Amino acid sequence: MSTSTHISSRQNPQALLSLIEETCRKITPVWPLDSFVAVNPYLGLIDRPFTEVGNYLAETTGEYLYMERAWFAKKIITGAIKVSDLTEAANQLKCDIDVNSIKQAAQCEPTPKKPLPLLALELNRRDAPPFLAFVTDQISGYLAAHYDRGQALWHIPCEAEKRLYSSWRQYTLIDRSSGAAGLKGVRKNLLCVSEHSEEALSWALAQIDLPEEQLADYLFATLKSIGGWASYCRYLLWQAELQGEENDDLRDLMVIRLVWDALILMEMDEPTRQRWRLKMSEWQRQRGFQSNEDMPIDEILLTAAEISFRRKVASGLKSKPENLPAAPPEIQAAFCIDVRSEVFRRHLEASMPNLETIGFAGFFGVPVEYCRLDESYTRSHMPVLLKPVFRAQQVGDKAIAERQHARLSRSATWKQFKLSAASCFTFVESAGLSYVPRLLADTLGWHRPSLPPDEAGLTAKERSQLHPALIGANGGALSEQEKIKLAEGMLRGLGLIDRFARIILLAGHGTSTTNNPHRAGLDCGACAGQTGEVSARVAASLLNEPAVRLGLAAKGIRIPRDTRFIAALHDTTTDQVSLLDVPTTGIDPAILKAVTQALEQAGELTRLERLVTLDKQVDQQSAARHVIHRGRDWSQVRPEWGLAGNGAFIAAPRWRTRGLDLRGRAFLHDYDWRKDPDFGVLTLIMTAPLVVASWINLQYYGSTVDNERLGCGNKVLHNVVGGLVGVLEGNSGDLRIGLSLQSLHNGETWRHEPLRLNAFIEAPTDALDRIIQDHPMLRQLVDNHWVNFCQIDERGGVKRRFANGNWRKD
Q1: Which residues, 6 or more positions from 176, have their beta carbon under 8 angstroms from its beta carbon?
Q2: Does an H or E element contain 580, and which?
Q3: Which residue from 216, 261, 491 is spatially nearest to 358, judged by alpha carbons?
Q4: With bands split at pLDDT 50, 70 and 90, how would you rate the model's confidence at 290?
Q5: pLDDT at position 414, please?
Q6: What does the pLDDT average to over 117-140?
Q7: What is the rounded CA–CA span in Å between residue 603 and residue 606?
Q8: Where would I find the beta strands (DSSP E) of 674-768?
Q9: Parallel, antiparallel, or unpaired: how do β-strands 368-371 and 355-360 relate?
Q10: Phi/psi zone of residue 638: left (φ > 0), alpha (ψ -120 to 50 degrees), beta?
Q11: Cα 60 from Cα 82, distance rounded (Å)
Q12: Within a 10 A sphere around the Cβ of 122, how many other Cβ atoms?
């Protein structure tokens, strides 16, 4: 995967900058804690086939792309993976390997490949920590202070006009830690390096003096050695480009890392340098070498496990609807396609047979950014792939905002006092006893869960007096035509163009946990790591407007006069659903009572099913109390499983899967291609929800197969960095990305099965092929085997898409 372009920092600086840019694009962005969303950790590499990327990562950074073989071997022994699955997998991959050889190979782990020998890792003193550990700590410590978002009590003076590299250089010139690490000449040598990033880059590469064929791989491995912070800088670039701006921090971080290598090299004697260059030459010669025992066994085992999973899903799909009534149901309830909603929807339908559920992205097609009362800062409430079009402005009495600000300010001042140097020796003696009630409440789970930013500092009564109002992104009012167009798009996406129930719930989702830095990762990914409350309330309010309904009727969508849309919020930790902004008129109390009771019963059944996966056997009466306590317990490492176990994406009419127990492993999106003549809705589904689902799936995949590099380790050891930037595992090292072990493993077995997403979509194959071909990111995911793409035909049969648009049964 190295570039074939000849690079010379002296002769062709533009080509070098292009190579730097190409390398930076291989890094995946990671969102900060207050908007933490799942991201495909291989995003920058999906233009290459899955297997090729596995070899590339193993050779350059040492990352693993496949689960340990012992996990597959256990599945073979238990029968979860059948002989026929192994045979079919080998045939699909065109590998001439018999089943017995595959089984035998599954009993032995492959010999790890030696990754590229980085300077900071290879050139070390005897009996001393590697220089790479010091370099990582030094850069990480600086960046934590540089990007601090309110956590630090003392701040690094920042000059707005200085780029990241220049600021780091200034900081490092007064930092004396390198001498203690054994690098005595860093300050003297760094004084000779330009303060301009481009000139420093050329200087560093001239010092390292790599052959041109090794440069691209070395740049990538070097940047990945500080991969957590590189991912955060990639996020800053992603956000800047959404706004049509630029950000140089990621390029500067690469320069910083290369300058450190050059500074280390300058302190080494010539024999040591030569040993490193010999290692680089040996590494280059060994690239691409594959012994007989390293044949594509891992790919066969993974493919076989996916075949087994797809077979189980496909066998449950219904071939025809069973007693589908022509009349509309009493209740329709739209939920996010999140896999946790699958369990709740199944139990809700069983609790109230005359109720239909709908699966749709949790932002309900409302592309908004949200601005709280009396603030100017906005937060996106839609998939991070897209840019907001409208704004949801919180409205209400400004005195409420003033009281909220005052309470939060007092809390921040008190916290700063507790942590200040003046009080650190006297605080415990003077105030320690007053904290006994709080400690008891925390331990026994008597207090409320930690509040999200939109609720912090507000009483329940004050919250009820605030609501989001839809306006234009520039702050102006929306025209009636803009509202009608938005409402039409929402309803067509939901598949609601006829058969309207009298009550239609729009249920967003969120979570309630305590002492959990990654709380946002359990909220709605379709709302950019926020709860779906704002989106649901804005959507319901819009669809209840008489003028909007009148405009929709002119477009052929006639909503009955007695139909009311009600916003709701599904708490995925407690499985309680709260109704929001219930209209005071036009609601039949009997129907409202019936749906409330059905929601309560579905919550009880969902809690009981979910608690079994959390290894907790409780009766129905104590289930609610137990899950509420889990959310309030400050020591709880897994208040819920989140999206662990996800493996399928199904876009089809609900009757195909209604009653099917998918065990909370499927993203369920309602879609009927017969109501979508131009396939506009299908295009949206495949280019947004499906891509987001693949991001979620691959984040869980990467965090499972290589948690050391793509996950964030043990959450018990996490320390928040920069307020909301991210976490460290311990008190030093690189910024950690991905998911913790506790989100994937129950202490005995893996809760998440690392399989690539299996997408099942009911639509004509020519339409599917055309959409895949027209959208590069989607085409790369499908054609390079990052996603297994299947079609559901009219009889419920399943075909899988292979190379060159070849569809055949799996």
Answers
A1: none
A2: strand 576-580
A3: 491
A4: low
A5: 64
A6: 86
A7: 5
A8: 718-721, 726-729, 757-761
A9: unpaired
A10: beta
A11: 34
A12: 18
How many CB atoms neighbour CB 525 within 10 A? 28
- Nearest 5 degrees, angle CA 65-CA 70-CA 76? 110
**In the block, residue with structure tokens 């898409």:** 801
CB 722 within 8 A of CB 141: no
Place of tokens 């009636």: 480
Q: Are 480 and 547 in contact (CB under 8 A)?
A: yes
C-alpha–C-alpha distance, residues 569 and 801, integer Å: 37
- In sequence order, the β-bridge partners of residue 287 are none
Q: Are 445 and 633 in contact (CB under 8 A)?
A: yes
φ, ψ of residue 332 to 5 degrees: the values are -125, 135
- State how far Cα 368 lies from the chain centre: 19
CA distance 446 to 450: 12
Tokens describing residue 256: 């910083």
pLDDT band at 746 (very low <50, low <70, confident <90, very high): very high
> How would you classify residue 723: left for phi > 0, otherwise alpha for psi between -120 and 50, otherwise beta?
left
Q: Could you give the strand order of the β-sheet that contains 378-380, starting from the edge strand earlier in sequence?
A: 378-380, 368-371, 390-395, 467-472
Q: Both tokens of residue 492?
A: 């067509």
Higher pLDDT, 288 or 533: 533
How many other CB atoms sit within 10 Å of the CB of residue 561?
A: 9
Separation CA 202–CA 216 (nearest Å): 15
Q: What is the pLDDT of residues 630-672, one digit of tens each?
A: 888 888 999 999 999 999 999 999 999 999 999 999 999 999 9
Cα atoms in the Cβ-side hemisphere of radius 13 Å centred on 422: 5
- Rounded to whole angstroms, the Cα distance separating 762 from 793 reads 6
Burial pattern 716-752, b for ≥16 Cβ within 10 A else e, equals eebeebbebbbbbbeeeebbbbbbbbbbbbeeeeebb
> What percent of the chain has pLDDT above 70?
91
d(CA 10, CA 215): 14
Edge-first strand order for the sheet with 355-360 is 355-360, 331-336, 503-510, 564-571, 576-580
Of 168, 556, 207, 524, nearest to 380 by C-alpha is: 524
**Residue labelled with tokens 């800088």:** 233
> For every residue of 493-562, which 3-state class applies, written as one string?
HHCCCCCCCCEEEEEEEECCCCCCCCHHHHCEHHHCCECCHHHHHHHHHHHCCHHHHHHHHHCCCCCCCC
Angle at 553 between CA 548 and CA 555, to 5 degrees: 100
736 three-class SS: strand
Kindly tell me if the per-residue pLDDT of 9 is higher than 50. Answer: no
Choose among 755, 765, 611: nearest CA to 682: 765
What would you report as the CA-atom Rg of the chain, rounded to the nearest whole angstrom? 28
* Tens-digit pLDDT profile for residues 775-789: 999 999 999 999 999
Which residues, listed in sequence order, are joined to residue 800 by a DSSP beta bridge? Answer: 790, 808
Residue 247 near residue 236, CB atoms below 8 Å: yes
Distance CA 233, CA 241 (A): 12
- Decide: 569 and 463 in contact? Cβ < 8 Å: no
Q: Average of pLDDT values for 346-368?
A: 95
Q: 5: pLDDT confidence band, cut at 50, 70 and 90?
A: very low
Enter the tokens of residue 551.
């405009």
pLDDT at 327: 83
Q: Give the DSSP per-residue string, 143-162.
A: HHHHT--S--SS-----TTS
Q: How far apart are CA 1 and CA 5, in angstroms?
A: 12
Q: Identify the band that residue 180 occupies on the pLDDT scale cut at 50, 70 and 90.
A: confident
Alpha carbons 656 and 588: distance in angstroms, whole number:
31
Give the pLDDT mean for 103-121: 92
- Residue carrying the six token digits 């839809």: 470
Structure tokens at 194: 């330009």
